[in-house]
Design a protein that fits this description.
16 helices, globular
Length: 294
């Protein structure tokens, strides 16, 4: 799931569906409640192991912890690869992202029925929102603490939605490269402490990472739950809105490809075209293998 979420256009939620843990994941996340967390804390203070164990089992904590460790490990590894790709071949990398995102939209639209005025309005609203937000990234939506916090809250909600990529949301909001670079700066600074590096080098990137994580935690208890509520009450309209977000978000990789283009020629066009096709093929093959309903 972490490897999928680190790449725009591929959803960790889809991986959860394929591996058969999606229902358990959603149930576990919604079972993490303030009352149960308080019970764990009270049990620890009173050294009441039975109370702690019961509360942790009720939240399926062992499952969430093991899953979380796997997600974090994969994000660190895959995002490092993506960082190198963006530095060495930005146009081709974003072309690959474009193929992933476009194919994801095609696959998901096959499961959405935009056959009522309400659903059509929801689809149009989703497209326009993503299109204008993606366009605003070139003007700089900012990277201040509040914006990073909100970005974390929104991006984490994608983890529980099959077909919607958290990294895609970061691309739309213009935060993908910034947050990936910051994450690696923080990891490198922490690792350098072993060789006598300065802890001060880890403070600035560590603050950004901590802010993003804090937003993600809040998002799990608010944004993700709100989306699940919307899916339960207005499933088709909500799906139309979410899938249309993907279509509108295509503006982001297109503009990044244009920004990275210095001397377009036939060879450059061929590389970009092949990267798009490969990205689309990955998603289409993945969808064929998955064989699941979103």
């Amino acid at each position: 799931m972490g490897a999928a979420d680190a790449v725009p256009g591929v959803s960790g939620g889809t991986i959860a569906l394929i591996t058969g843990i999606y229902d358990r994941l959603v149930t576990a996340l919604t079972d993490v409640e303030p009352g149960r967390i308080a019970a764990v804390l009270r049990g620890l203070l009173r050294r009441d192991r039975a109370t702690v164990a019961d509360a942790l089992r009720a939240m399926d904590a062992a499952f969430l912890v093991s899953l979380g460790l796997g997600v974090v490990s994969a994000v660190l590894v895959v995002s490092r690869v993506v960082e190198v790709a963006l530095a060495e071949a930005p146009a081709a990398t974003y072309a690959f992202f474009f193929g992933l995102i476009a194919a994801s939209a095609v696959v998901l639209y096959e499961t959405v029925a935009v056959d009522t005025p309400g659903r059509a309005v929801a689809a149009l609203a989703g497209f326009l929102l993503a299109f204008f937000v993606a366009g605003a990234t070139t003007g700089g939506l900012g990277d201040g603490p509040l914006f990073v916090f909100v970005t974390g809250a929104i991006a984490i909600s994608a983890m529980v939605l099959p077909g919607i990529s958290g990294s895609l949301i970061l691309v739309v909001l213009g935060q993908y490269e910034y947050l990936v670079d910051t994450l690696h700066d923080f990891v490198d600074a922490v690792l350098s402490l072993v060789d006598g590096g300065s802890i001060g080098a880890a403070v600035d990137p560590g603050t950004v990472v901590a802010t993003f994580v804090a937003g993600a935690v809040v998002g799990l208890f608010t944004v993700a739950h709100a989306i699940r509520f919307a899916l339960d009450r207005w499933r088709e309209a909500t799906l139309a809105f979410l899938v249309s977000l993907i279509v509108g978000a295509l503006r982001a990789p297109v503009e990044r490809i244009a920004d990275a283009t210095t001397a377009p020629d036939a060879a450059f066009a061929a590389v970009v075209g092949v990267a798009m096709v490969v990205g689309a093929a990955v998603v289409l093959a993945f969808d064929r293998y998955a064989g699941v309903e979103y």
